[in-house]
Amino acid sequence: MAPATLEIDLLRSFVAISDTGSFTAAASVVNRTQSAVSLQMRRLEAQAGVRLFHRRGRETALTVEGRDLLVQARRLLRLHDETVASLRKPAVSGTVRVAIPDDYALIFLPTLFRRFSEAFPQVDLEVTTQGSAQIQQGLEAGAYDLVVMSQMHASPDAVVLRREPVVWVTAPTGLAHEQRPVPIAHFSYECLFFEHAFRALERAGIAYRPAYRSNSITALLAAVESGLAISSLAGSSVPPGLKTLDSLFGLPPLPTINIVLRTAPGGVGEAGTILARHIVDGFRTEGTVTAAA
Fold it and tell me: Does residue 43 lie within any of the structural domains?
């Protein structure tokens, strides 16, 4: 018996459904009609030999098998695209200007950029680390091709890479959270995290003071690790040397934010388009979908 085969085009549409949240939106991404995408998913289920979707009226959600396939599909598509691109490397060149917050860069970029540079050695990357407010201004001014940034509510042109809880952090043995006013280490006042951190403290009636301010994540973390202040970070950005503070420590809860990818309105070219796919794949290692059929 011949082994089962999963067609790349079907997997690409399957991932597009997860990324966009609907069959209709996915159809636009893969340049097919909604009915064609629905037929593709029926074929994919037949090839996989398992149900990939729970269908309840017009709503569709991934089954357990579908979620498992989604993880593998992203890997297969990345390998496929890198293999195809490697056959035409001389055609992929240029410079891509990228901006990303400092803390995300430390966590997500090393592996992601290494993989991209190995596959596309003739593409030069210009990477700037800034706060999301400055990144927004730079994107509007045409300074960047691709940006990763934080948004409370994702803008219409943004691709949501992941949703992150914002957490309070302190030194493992630190007691700064017990001081009044609470000493806070923070980025610029325009930083989304600290805007909401300060508001949360004010709503809770907890006095605070902006004790340490820096545009460097290294300097900010040093202030926290020393036990001199607490700070707020995305959950995935908390280094091993710090601990999170929950409501048991008397601090108010913080919101969940969107980490999004945005591109220059005028287009980013082939190299930028390929890098954008790498960024999406690097952030979305796994996921679930609730989609309208």
Answer: yes
